[in-house]
From TrEMBL:
This is Multifunctional fusion protein. Pathway: Metabolic intermediate biosynthesis; chorismate biosynthesis; chorismate from D-erythrose 4-phosphate and phosphoenolpyruvate: step 6/7. ATP binds at G440, P441, S442, A443, S444, G445, K446, G447, T448. Residues 436-645 form the Cytidylate kinase domain. It comes from Azoarcus sp. (strain BH72).
Length: 653
């Protein structure tokens, strides 16, 4: 099966504002508490995502009625006022840890027969510490597969409530969250003692805050002992608003810090109950300019432009800390992320995955059991990023594009887990390096106009047609047959070409005139139809897209190479006008030329170019037509520059 991917172009800057989707952690906790509570709860701004869908499906299967207000993310949940009424069920929970673990505890105390399963990765995520704690209370839970991991079979059991339950706190805070939310079902005072250091304390704070809103106040002693009072029952708070997701805010705040900014996220602020808002504090330590309001946070780049190197303990923000790993690529020295062992048991082994993908873009990475040390590269390398079915990997690595580097995100739909519209939201704040794409028939003046427009704007210039001419010239000099597709593709992949104004260089040789010969033009036509050659030059052409902008001309430049070009132009002229220009060029160089022969050659070339299956000559629907039959070069350049300004683009000059 062919993997889906998303190509992100190099970004010039980041600026704007984003309304965050609802918090995953708050959404799934709120749904479960509303289901177990007495009364109806209206939950506003619930996150629309795969994980929340799995929770909603499970609650419905367990006898909980809920409804959605059409056209909104507002839900009404009819609480069952205690254990679930459906006593037998087979639940599939995907890779949703925020559904699987809390439901495991609630079902174990509901006196029914249930089977819980998920995707393959969920079956690799440990749950043994939670099961051990529930067994202390009398729960009957069987591992269907590997010991200590899902799937699970929960059987009816005589629960022995009260007393003290012990649970490890150094693997996942979700185990403690699950126990805390489920224990009020017993009606008996119970104390939970945490064994070892409790990680991700801010997530426990979310749990305690939400339980209190539903009428259950847990007594906490130094994050080591938690007592659920006897006789506690969940009661609906009536209406509950879900905050924006603070973990998702991290990508946009980092974008502002890396890409200039300011970028503002709306939906979280100084009064947020989510610990991941402290990501903004971490960015401030890196030198970013942070401003915080009641319901928003804003980030902009440091005055010096580059982030400061850092060495941070990130135990308190494990999810948002992933964003710092990519932000390290833009720091002024080596960066260390410490106390992140919980990454190993997330949607993927995030320490290993992050190290692997950071190396692809050029970073040197040292990977430890609970840390990463990252040496940022001098120049980022384009790369195809594997995402491991992990939404946060996909979102984090979108930030690489802000380094003026194109990046491919494999399996981009994995963001559906928490933020289905992430890439659309990213596009609203990240501005791509602008491209002016000029196509048209041979000898229409694309190269001359393109070079002068680039010079006027102070942008980079790419004559893509010259790349094919350079391949043909290199093959001719190396004695390589123009039908040898493999050898020609190898040449194309390692072509030492550069463009300086209207001059073209191959290594140290100025080949501007050599590639304009009729022999070289004919050779270029032959190699340009070879798929392997075009594929080899595709990435190479895209790498010319660098700030402050690019003017590029050539066949398929606006359809295949830069389909998102800001301005597209189809530059043409009559056969007679083009032949006359070519005639004057040749005569000016002291070469023999014949007008009739030149016109016939151009007609035949146009026909071949229009008929070929690979990159045929055609005007794109979104391209402006520029006919230069009766225009000189300066008039054509003025036309293009006016069009650029009409699109709100500015030159560097």
């Amino acid at each position: 099966m062919t993997m889906e991917f998303l190509d992100l172009p190099p970004m010039l800057a980041a600026r704007g504002q984003v309304r965050l989707p609802g918090s995953k952690s708050i959404s799934n906790r709120s749904l479960l508490l509303a289901a177990l509570a007495e009364g109806e709860t209206d939950i506003r701004d619930l996150l629309a995502s795969d994980d929340v869908e799995r929770m909603l499906e499970a609650l419905q299967a367990l006898g909980v009625r809920w409804s959605r207000e059409e056209g909104t993310d507002n839900y009404r949940v009819h609480g069952v006022g205690g254990p679930f009424p459906v006593k037998k069920g087979d639940l599939f929970l995907g890779n949703a840890g925020t559904a699987f673990r809390p439901l495991t505890a609630a079902l174990a105390l509901s006196g029914g027969d249930y089977r819980l399963s998920g995707v393959a990765r969920m079956h690799e995520r440990p749950i043994g510490d939670l099961v051990d704690a529930l067994r202390q209370a009398g729960a009957d839970i069987e591992y269907v597969g590997n010991e200590g991991f899902p799937p699970l079979h929960i059987r009816p059991a005589t629960i022995r409530p009260g007393g003290v339950l012990k649970v490890r706190g150094d693997v996942s805070s979700q185990f403690l969250t699950a126990l805390l939310m489920a224990l009020p079902l017993t009606g008996v005072e119970t104390t939970i003692e945490v064994v070892g250091e409790l990680i991700s304390k801010p997530y426990i704070a979310i749990t305690l805050d939400l339980m209190a809103r539903f009428g259950v106040d847990v007594v906490r002693e130094d994050w080591q002992r938690f007592t659920v009072p006897g006789g506690a029952r969940y009661r609906s708070p009536g209406v509950l608003y879900v905050e924006g997701d603070a973990s998702s805010a991290s990508y946009f705040l980092a974008a502002g810090a890396i890409g200039g900014g300011p970028v503002r996220v709306e939906g979280v602020g100084r009064d947020s109950i989510q610990g991941d808002v402290r990501f903004a504090d971490a960015l401030a330590q890196l030198g970013a300019v942070i401003t915080v309001g009641d319901n928003w946070i804003e980030a902009a780049a440091p005055a010096g432009g580059r982030l400061r190197a850092f060495d941070l303990d990130l135990n308190h923000i494990p999810d948002a800390a992933m964003t710092l790993a990519v932000a390290a690529l833009f720091a002024d020295g080596p960066c260390t992320l410490r106390n992140i062992a919980s990454w190993r048991v997330k949607e993927t082994d995030r320490i290993a995955a992050m190290a692997t993908e950071l190396r692809k873009v050029g970073a040197e990475v040292e990977e430890g059991a609970d840390y990463l040390r990252i040496m940022p590269p001098a120049v980022l390398r384009p790369a195809a990023i594997d995402t491991y079915d992990d939404h946060r990997m996909a979102m984090c690595f979108s930030l690489v594009s802000l380094g003026g580097c194109r990046v491919r995100i494999n399996d981009p739909r994995c963001v559906n887990k928490t933020f289905p519209s992430y890439f659309e939201a990213f596009a609203t704040v990240a501005a791509p390096v602008p491209v002016v794409a000029i196509d048209g028939p041979s000898a229409s003046g694309k190269g001359t106009v393109g070079a002068r427009v680039a010079a006027a704007l102070g942008w980079h210039h790419l004559d893509s047609g010259s790349l094919y001419r350079l391949v043909a010239l290199s093959a001719e000099r190396g004695g390589i047959d123009l039908d040898d597709e493999v050898a020609l593709a190898a040449i194309a992949g390692d072509l030492p070409a550069r463009f300086e104004g209207e001059r073209v260089w191959l290594g140290t040789d100025d080949v501007t005139d050599a590639i304009r010969s009729e022999q070289c033009s004919a050779g270029a036509s032959k190699v340009a139809v070879l798929p392997a050659v075009r594929a080899a030059l595709l990435g190479r052409q895209r790498d010319y897209r660098q700030g402050p902008g690019l003017v590029a001309e050539g066949r398929d430049i606006g359809s295949v190479i830069f389909p998102d070009a800001s301005v597209k132009i189809f530059l043409t002229a009559s056969v007679e006008a083009r032949a006359e220009r070519r005639y004057k060029q040749l005569i000016g160089k002291g070469l023999a030329a014949n007008m009739e022969s030149l016109m016939q050659d151009l007609r035949e070339r146009d026909a071949r170019d229009a008929a070929r299956t690979v990159a045929p000559l055609q005007k794109l629907p979104d391209a402006a037509l520029l006919d230069t039959t009766d225009r000189d070069v300066e008039q054509a350049v003025t036309f293009v520059l006016d069009l650029v300004r009409d699109h709100g683009l500015r030159g560097a000059n």
